[in-house]
């Protein structure tokens, strides 16, 4: 399986960023890491290996990006700075990673995927930019980081502003009414996957209900047990990517 390592200085983030590319052709997939994880963890956890057949046959090409979650959601900075750092990260993906992919790969389509917090990243960016992506897959994710849950805190310590609102799918999705945006969202292939014992199950059910409310087709798959571990993600990517 072809493997490439890339690193460049990101103007969006004012720091070096790294990524790994697996495969040489096929529909490109931007794969976001889990909380506190890095661009190499999906390879180490054998999640990439679980996609080997699809990569080798040229069905998909996988781009494992890094995150700055420790500088945004999980930093000690004031909450307004946390969400601003996240927005800068999103600019890095849209203005740097996506053009990089397009130079390497001329295949139509672009998939955003991830597990846990990576699933949040994939679904959030995909729903906000449905003309950039044609498919989004969120596995074991939560979609409102302001909602405290058992073992999971409000990542903004009670602070709330418009930047946060427009980056929490369970906040902004029910209010989408623009017909042009709705038409674009209707073209998206949206898949949400969650375990029945996962703390984020209600969050996924809420997002599913919100998408139904605004008339957006999607798939919600509820697995047995918690299903919030690499051994489950290895099976999920075989089915949903």
From TrEMBL:
Q: Which organism is it from?
A: Dyadobacter luticola
Q: List, alphabetically, the InterPro entries matched.
A: AB_hydrolase_fold, Esterase-like, Mycobacterial_A85_antigen
Q: Return the Gene3D superfamilies for the record.
A: alpha/beta hydrolase
**Name assigned to this protein:** Esterase
Pfam families reported for this sequence: Esterase
């Amino acid at each position: 399986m072809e493997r490439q390592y890339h690193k460049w200085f990101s103007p969006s983030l004012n720091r070096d960023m790294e990524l790994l590319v697996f495969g040489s052709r096929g529909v490109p997939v931007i794969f976001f890491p889990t909380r506190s994880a890095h661009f190499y963890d999906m390879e180490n956890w054998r999640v990439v290996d679980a996609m080997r057949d699809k990569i080798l046959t040229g069905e998909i090409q996988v781009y494992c990006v890094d995150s700055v979650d420790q500088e945004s959601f999980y930093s000690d900075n004031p909450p307004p700075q946390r969400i601003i750092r996240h927005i800068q990260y999103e600019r890095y993906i849209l203005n740097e990673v996506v053009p990089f992919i397009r130079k390497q790969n001329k295949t139509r389509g672009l998939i955003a995927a991830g597990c846990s917090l990576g699933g949040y990243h994939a679904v959030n960016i995909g729903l906000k930019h449905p003309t950039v992506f044609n498919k989004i897959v969120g596995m074991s994710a939560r979609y409102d980081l302001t909602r405290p849950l058992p073992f999971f805190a409000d990542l903004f310590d009670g602070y709330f502003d418009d930047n946060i609102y427009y980056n929490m799918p369970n906040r902004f999705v029910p209010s989408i009414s623009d017909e042009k945006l709705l038409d674009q969202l209707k073209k998206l292939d949206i898949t949400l996957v969650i375990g029945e014992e996962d703390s984020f199950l209600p969050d996924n059910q809420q997002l599913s209900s919100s998408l139904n409310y605004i008339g957006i087709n999607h798939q919600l798959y509820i697995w047995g047990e918690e299903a919030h571990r690499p051994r489950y993600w290895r099976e999920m990517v075989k089915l949903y990517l």
